[in-house]
Design a protein that fits this description.
heterodimer; A: 266 residues; alpha+beta; Uridine Diphospho-n-acetylenolpyruvylglucosamine Reductase, domain 2; Uridine Diphospho-n-acetylenolpyruvylglucosamine Reductase, domain 3; Enolase-like, domain 1; five-stranded antiparallel sheet; B: 161 residues; Ubiquitin-like (UB roll); DNA polymerase, domain 1; 2 domains; five-stranded mixed sheet; 5 helices; 5 strands; globular; oxidoreductase activity (chain B)
């Protein structure tokens, strides 16, 4: 790792001021991606500004229609939250399947969303539920947020404060992890919203990161059942092809994981 | 250089280190606690697991300065004098180690796991929770046995005199 200067932000204004003063600063949350990336010298920020001690950036709250998760909330706290388990159990289950227990104790939802790794789990839930990403400047909805692999609408000096998920009628996430890395080879989040609309988003498969599957959505809209997907072909076009699996293999996995998710959602 | 202070195994420690110093290097080099191991150095193997403010974390994937002011427990902090922690004792009894390199991380992960699950541990849960700890001797079977036995013993009320 190259040398860097670490500081803790006391509040959002302090974080922005520290970022403004840095030559090439980077905000640090749980660090479970950023620190390994820095160790490999693939990133070398002059300054690291730790956001995790900012009050109000952590925590979970819910009302009748939404669950709002503070950006610095750890995966473990989402996975074990009675509020999340009650309102959107699919998100608690998704969080419980990220990395391993030690990684879940450190990693944060805001970090995951801001990094937008093409195989990260949270983006599937954010896109499938049409969540709002609340920053210190504005609210950006999922469709506008994700802009391709490791790319989002977040400005360099902008800070994610919270993610607001609409509570669906039904939802579930099914992941096929790479047997070695445990990252999603295909992770599919299915959601039936309270207004009846159906959304399906998958991580780990798209060349441009997380994406929706309109054909699967249309089939489930007509008939919310795993059987309804049996004959729906998923096109390999635009899907990743690498040593872990061909685009055709991933396309098939999307259908299989979607069926498992619908069955789990009930 | 930054002066980084924290509580390690109940003892207040302080050392001048670079901000880029990893917690595992702080523990091993700055304060000479070499029980915490570096295996893969890529947050996959879990040999470096310690507890920070009561939670198991991978100390190769955290900066020492991130833990400034925190309370850290390492493998050296588990035993009480000459008496092994119940998880350490169970690893010895069940031959839960072969070469021993992964053992500190396995035990710190196990202690955290037992704390979180209490009496709810079964074999499938233990195996799933060990996802982030790798034993290259492949001695998982006895590691799982040791953790289940320790969990059961730690649940047992003290025998009446």
């Amino acid at each position: 790792m190259y040398a860097t200067n670490f500081s803790r932000a006391a509040n959002l204004a302090d974080a922005s001021a520290k970022m403004g003063a840095a030559t090439d600063g980077k905000y640090l949350a749980g660090g479970q991606t950023l620190i390994p990336t820095m160790k490999q010298r693939l990133a070398a920020p002059s300054d690291l500004i730790d956001l995790t001690r900012i009050p109000d950036l952590s925590g979970i709250k819910a009302d009748a229609d939404t669950v709002t998760i503070g950006a610095a909330t750890r995966h473990y706290d989402v996975a074990t939250s009675a509020t999340v388990r009650g309102a959107i159990p699919a998100i608690a289950a998704l969080a419980a399947g990220i990395g391993d227990p030690a990684v879940r104790h450190m990693g944060t939802i805001g970090g995951s969303i801001a990094n937008n790794d093409p195989a990260a789990d949270y983006p599937a839930a954010v896109l499938a539920l049409g969540a709002g990403i609340i920053t210190d400047k504005r609210t950006i909805f999922a469709e506008a947020w994700f802009q391709g692999m490791f790319s989002t609408a977040l400005g360099t000096d902008e800070i994610v404060k919270a993610i607001q998920f609409p509570i669906p009628a039904k939802a579930a996430y099914a992941k096929f992890p790479n047997p070695a890395s445990r990252y999603a080879l295909a992770g599919v989040f299915v959601a039936k919203m309270k207004n009846g609309s159906v959304r399906v988003a998958a991580t780990g498969v798209g060349e441009g990161g997380v994406l929706r599957f309109p054909a699967l959505e249309a089939a489930l809209q007509a008939n919310w059942s795993a059987a309804a997907l049996a004959n729906v072909a998923v096109s390999p076009e635009g899907l990743l092809s690498d040593i872990h699996g061909s685009a055709e293999y991933r396309a098939n996995l999307v259908n299989v994981m979607a069926r498992r998710a619908v069955a789990a959602a009930g | 250089m930054t002066t980084v202070s924290m509580t390690v195994n109940g003892r207040q420690v302080s050392a001048d280190v670079e901000d880029r110093t990893l917690l595992v290097d702080y523990l091993r080099n700055a304060i000479s606690l070499t029980g915490t191991h570096v295996g893969c150095d890529t947050s996959q193997c879990g040999a470096c697991v310690v507890h920070v403010d009561g939670r198991a974390v991978k100390s190769c994937t955290m900066l020492a300065v991130q833990a400034a002011g925190s309370s850290v427990t390492t493998i050296e902090g588990l035993a009480t004098g000459d008496e092994l922690h119940p998880v350490q004792a169970a690893f010895r009894e069940h031959h839960g180690l072969q070469c021993g390199f992964c053992t500190p991380g396995m035990i710190m992960t196990a202690v955290d796991m037992i704390r979180r699950h209490g009496g709810q541990l079964d074999e499938a849960t233990v195996r799933h929770e060990l996802e982030g700890n790798i034993c290259r001797c492949t001695g998982y079977h006895n590691i799982v046995k040791a953790i289940l036995d320790a969990a059961a013993k730690m649940q047992m009320p003290a025998a009446a005199e």
